[in-house]
Specification:
It is a single chain. By secondary structure, this protein is an all-alpha fold. The chain has helices at residues 3-22, 41-58, 64-70, 74-77, 80-98, 103-126, 130-151, 162-171, 177-194, 203-220. The radius of gyration is 23 Å and the shape is elongated.
């Protein structure tokens, strides 16, 4: 599952939870004027906190989505109307994300995720766990190639293999044939590591793989 899918699924989950909060609506007592309906306070607090966390991490604390959501006076009264408005902000955030209006933000998120995985693989390499490191690096490389293909609006079959994406990108001129051959070699190392064929590569091969993939991502996706 790629980054876009994870973010979209999480936002949809939070929208469903927001709708569940609204479903707990309780009307104020009769003969009261100027009072809004109430919602379940525990559910509302939990939902509000979770959404703030996600919006801050995905969109940033300076984003209009985060600020508009946080400005709703949910913590003061936990009433129906501000909760409903907050849900509307969350729905708008999902729509903007799905429609691609946050493309630069996506790139930043992807770059951060790739960096995290490459850091993990570097730790594995330092500890001498070359096979697991090769598998992680290969997975990062495969996902990076799919991102490049999407950015270049290249047609791919459903769930394409790394070799297929590599071929399409090279044919489209995204990178030269020499790069294609290097990627093919690294894909072979990843496959050997995944299948326990540890005699097919050495520690230096994995170190070289890590350094090359890091430079490739910085050049094409950063």
């Amino acid at each position: 599952m790629n980054v876009d899918e994870k973010v979209t699924i999480r936002l949809r989950e939070l929208i469903e939870r927001g709708e569940a909060v609204l479903a707990t609506r309780r009307d104020p007592p009769r003969n009261t004027i100027g009072f809004d309906a109430f919602v379940d306070s525990q559910l509302a607090y939990q939902w509000f906190t979770s959404v703030q966390n996600v919006l801050s991490r995905v969109f940033g604390a300076d984003s209009e989505h985060y600020k508009n959501f946080s400005s709703q006076p949910i913590r003061q009264g936990l009433t129906y109307a501000p909760t409903r408005r907050a849900l509307g902000v969350l729905q708008a955030a999902l729509e903007d994300y799905e429609q691609g209006y946050l493309f630069n933000l996506r790139e930043l998120i992807e770059a951060e995720v790739f960096s995290d995985f490459l850091d993990q693989s570097e730790t594995l390499i330092s500890a001498g766990y070359y096979a697991p490191a090769a598998v992680v690096i290969g997975s990062v490389l495969e996902d990076s190639l799919r991102r490049l293909a999407e950015r270049a609006e290249l047609e791919l079959p459903d769930k394409p293999k790394l070799d297929r994406v590599n071929s399409v990108l090279a044919k489209a001129g995204v990178y030269p044939k020499l790069t294609q051959k290097r990627i093919t070699a690294f894909a072979d190392i990843r496959n050997s590591a995944a299948h326990g064929e540890w005699d097919a590569f050495g520690g230096e091969d994995v170190k070289d793989m890590h350094a090359w993939v890091s430079r490739f991502i910085e050049q094409h996706l950063a």
